[in-house]
């Protein structure tokens, strides 16, 4: 893996991941999200162990982008002559909760295997894996645009009157996690373009600050009116009547609609229910997992305690020092699960499910497969 500081900032939007053919062989170039917002630095992955490390450290993160990373990772292994099956296993195991990761890996592996079966040619099989990754990338961008439109229409229906909207969001769900503009933040972008965004409330999202570091970064680039709050300030914001809707993404949606997302999403859903504010999940169909029957069956990633016991370490800005006594035990789940009865609607590129039930989600999946 190598690191470079140049060329990481395209003029419009952000490019979180790209495939590049270089004289020494193909590489996967990632915008290193651990360095944002202070530095825009690219990571160049030449092999799967480097990519796995980037996934584990959250240099590349967010469910749809993990799907792309998984698919391109398989293509990278194939193009560089590594053992594709072993690479696929390593990638799938690198983080457990976001269903998109395994989905992306399996798509590329299937394309690779089919290529090998067709004519036994490794180079053509590698090309087939790369084409599968590129197709997923294009589809993700398309899904993002459709979710944005559907989500904005839903907000018009739920909150008619044409006034400005105050939207609360958690973690980061924008272009940094997607081939397009993202999921929940793509809806916010659409509302902003329509001139309807009065304020975006950005939860800082402890412990790794995806809200403060990444969502605020994207909101600022797009000139949105936004304010950052500590996660535990959300309650006072609701009680002051300052939130019109909550929009979040998802890492895995079980068959019954239970939704795993960044730790801190569930308390927002409880707050939203109490204050009668719509709580909307925005996610592509690739995040809906029919194999996981319910919320209790979702594996929630547990992360290292130092992420809680130490201040976040930001390049050039210090941090990384202990904020708790030596030997302190930490509880650090990366995600929590919100039950369907707390979710007003799930917005996908194929349609909106509201109320959220196992049957309604199942019907949407059937419709989208036959459509
Ligand atoms: O641990 P992370 O930063 O990968 O968690 C990301 C989230 O929880 C996002 O909200 C989720 O992946 C949806 S992204 C569209």
From TrEMBL:
Name used for this protein in its record: Methylthioribose-1-phosphate isomerase
PANTHER family, A to Z: METHYLTHIORIBOSE-1-PHOSPHATE ISOMERASE
Signal peptide segment: none
Species in which this protein is naturally found: Streptomyces thermolineatus
Site (Transition state stabilizer): 171
Role summary: Catalyzes the interconversion of methylthioribose-1-phosphate (MTR-1-P) into methylthioribulose-1-phosphate (MTRu-1-P).
Gene: mtnA
Reactions mediated catalytically: 5-(methylsulfanyl)-alpha-D-ribose 1-phosphate = 5-(methylsulfanyl)-D-ribulose 1-phosphate
Family to which this protein belongs: Belongs to the EIF-2B alpha/beta/delta subunits family. MtnA subfamily.
Isomerase recorded as keyword: yes
Xref: Pfam families: IF-2B
EC number: 5.3.1.23
NCBIfam families named among the record's database cross-references: eIF-2B_rel (TIGR00524), PRK05720.1 (NF004326), salvage_mtnA (TIGR00512)
HAMAP family from the UniProt entry: Salvage_MtnA (MF_01678)
Keyword terms: Amino-acid biosynthesis, Isomerase, Methionine biosynthesis
Active site: 251
Record has DNA repair as a keyword: no
UniProt pathway annotation: Amino-acid biosynthesis; L-methionine biosynthesis via salvage pathway; L-methionine from S-methyl-5-thio-alpha-D-ribose 1-phosphate: step 1/6
A molecular-function term among this protein's GO annotations: isomerase activity
Residues annotated for substrate binding in this entry: 61-63, 95, 210, 261-262
């Amino acid at each position: 893996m190598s690191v470079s500081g140049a060329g990481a900032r395209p003029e419009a939007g952000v490019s979180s991941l790209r495939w590049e053919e270089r004289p020494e062989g193909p590489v996967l170039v990632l915008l290193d999200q651990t360095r944002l917002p202070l530095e825009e630095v690219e990571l160049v992955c030449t092999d799967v162990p480097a990519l796995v490390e980037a996934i584990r450290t959250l240099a590349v993160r967010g469910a749809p982008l993990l799907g792309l990373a998984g698919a391109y990772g398989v293509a990278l292994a194939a193009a560089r002559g590594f053992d594709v099956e072993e690479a696929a296993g390593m990638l799938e195991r690198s983080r457990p909760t976001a269903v998109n990761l395994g989905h992306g890996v399996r798509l590329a592996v299937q394309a690779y295997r089919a290529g090998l079966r067709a004519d036994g040619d490794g180079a053509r099989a590698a090309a087939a894996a790369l084409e599968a990754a590129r197709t997923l990338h294009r589809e993700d961008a398309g899904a993002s645009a459709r979710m944005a439109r559907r989500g904005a229409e839903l907000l018009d229906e739920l909150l008619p009157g044409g006034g400005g909207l105050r939207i609360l969001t958690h973690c980061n769900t924008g272009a940094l996690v997607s081939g397009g503009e993202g999921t929940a933040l793509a809806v916010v972008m659409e509302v902003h373009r329509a001139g309807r965004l009065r304020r975006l409330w950005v939860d800082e999202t402890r412990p790794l600050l995806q809200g403060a570091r990444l969502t605020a970064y994207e909101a600022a680039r797009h000139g949105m009116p936004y304010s950052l709050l500590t996660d535990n300030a959300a309650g006072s914001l609701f009680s002051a009547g300052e939130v019109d809707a909550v929009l979040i993404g998802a890492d895995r949606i079980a068959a019954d609609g239970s939704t795993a997302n960044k730790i801190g999403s569930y308390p927002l859903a409880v707050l939203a229910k109490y204050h009668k504010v719509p709580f909307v999940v925005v996610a592509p169909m690739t995040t809906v997992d029919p194999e996981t029957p319910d919320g209790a069956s979702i594996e929630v990633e547990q992360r290292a305690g130092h992420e809680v016991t130490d201040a976040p370490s930001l390049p050039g800005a210090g941090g990384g020092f202990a904020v708790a006594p030596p030997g302190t035990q930490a509880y650090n789940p990366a995600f929590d699960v919100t039950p369907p009865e707390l979710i007003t609607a799930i917005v996908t590129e194929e349609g909106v499910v509201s109320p959220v039930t196992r049957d309604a989600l199942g019907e949407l999946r059937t419709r989208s497969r036959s459509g």
